[in-house]
Amino acid sequence: MKTEGIDGIERFTSPGKGRGLRATKHFKVGDLLFSCPAYAYVLTVSERAAHCEFCFTRKEGLSKCGKCKKAFYCNVDCQKGDWCMHKLECSAMCAYGENWSPSETVRLTARIIAKQKMQPERSASEKLLLVREFEAHLNELDNERSEMNQADIAALHHFYSKHLEFPDHAGLTVLFAQVNCNGFTIEDEELSHLGSAVFPDVALMNHSCCPNVIVTYKGIVAEVRAVQEINPGEEVFTSYIDLLYPTEDRNERLRDSYFFTCDCKECTTKSKDKAKMKLRDLSEPPKPEEVRDMLRYARNIIEDFRRAKHCKTPSELLEMCELSLDKMGAIFEDTNVYMLHMMYQAMGVCLYMEDWDGAMSYGEKIIKPYSMHYPAHSLNVASMYLKLGRLYLGLEKKSMGIKALKKAIVIMEVTHGKDHHYIAEIKREIQQQK
Questions:
Q1: Within a 13 Å sphere around the CA of 48, how many CA atoms are in the beta-carbon half?
Q2: pTM score, whole prediction
Q3: Which of 195, 236, 248, 420 is least surrounded by Cβ atoms within 10 Å, i.e. has the fewest?
Q4: Which residues contact 19 (CB under 8 A, 6 or more apart)?
Q5: Are strands 237-238 and 206-207 parallel, antiparallel or unpaired?
Q6: What is the pLDDT of residues 219-232, one digit of tens each?
Q7: Angstrom distance (rounded) from CA 375 to CA 252
Q8: For residue range 90-113, what is the model confidence (pLDDT) as tens digits?
Q9: Which residues contact 44 (CB under 8 A, 6 or more apart)?
């Protein structure tokens, strides 16, 4: 396929940032700038049986693969469409059984290799950027990242050698680094993880903590919509990271994952940092060193909790959240983002444990400060309204539930487009209450 381009968008060299996208026409808030089908993608293992492996449709009554009994499909057409990728895993899953355990990154990379062999010419996902043009940042990888890449290469050979011809070791090293730096997480309307993919044209956008577009998904297609007015000649910016956190934390994440420091307006002015780091109004204000110590504790407990998710029970995780909130709450206000982070984790544990009242209580504390800290038209705010709305309905708080769901819809009509099937589903939930 020869280069087609995208109407209203062009690739250009962004000063100080390298490649980027800029608008060649005006876009208003909610406008679709462009859509991009996934070049390669994989459904996460935990969502099997709930989503079609080929098109990511969520529905009941999916049909399973007759051989491996692991992959599920809408119908025969979806199963046939997916066979060129599923065959990479089907017999291996049968052979290895419970020992079949490639990471999602390994599974995605295997599919990229297969796609490149099947379709060496430019794909519909690469109108402006080819997969082989992805940045790899090999020279900036630390020893831990390099070792992880080598472990992934070993896993790729172990699980996929019967069905794939691999590039040489140097080529695989570059490819895994490219995938780690340019891969996307596909999420549902509540921001639950559905799978991983590469969307080359979407990957061309640079980052800003004041983004003017947002990326959402319709099945295996990424859609890029304006969340600010965009004029001809202006660069198109998305956000690579969660924008809840203060400037120092955001840039640490950007340096760690993407090897740059952001110089957007929010990062230079730090205008939201004071509100995000709000302290309690105490009769005797804490000393600066006490605040520094608590900040260090907060960052450590976030990392400790992330690790604990893999080994502790839900009850232990909830206790960890509650203890940290008690400790931080001695100095930090409830609207402080570190408090909100642990409240959000606690809410997730409560949902898992089916403690609906507990989840609702945390959600109610989170939603107002979320609306203050996040930019307008935030997926994080929409998903919190959605979770709260569904909790309210489940707890027979009908009017509160409908009100919360309607607030989610207002945001999602901008971020997802008014015709998105998620919005139709939420509207049906509201209709069922009448």
A1: 12
A2: 0.94
A3: 248
A4: 11, 12, 13, 129, 204
A5: parallel
A6: 999 999 999 999 99
A7: 20
A8: 999 999 999 999 999 999 999 999
A9: 104, 193, 194, 195, 196
Q: Which residues, in sequence order, are CB contacts of 43 under 8 Å at separation 6+? A: 51, 53, 56, 194, 195
Start-to-end CA distance of the chain, whole Å, equals 51
CA dihedral sign, ordered 22, 25, 31, 37: negative
Question: What does the pLDDT look like over 161-177, one tens digit per residue?
Answer: 988 999 999 999 999 99
Domains and CATH numbers, the chain: 270-431 (1.25.40.10)
H or E, element range at 186: strand 184-187
3-state SS, residue 222: strand
Single out the residue of 233, 220, 265 nearest to residue 247, CA to CA: 265
- Rounded to whole angstroms, the Cα distance separating 339 from 110 reads 40
The encoded tokens of residue 223 equal 């859609």
The length of the chain is: 434
Rounded-to-5 percentages of helix, strand, coil across the chain: 50, 15, 35
* CA-wise closest residue to 244 among 385, 345, 378, 334: 378
d(CA 173, CA 145): 11
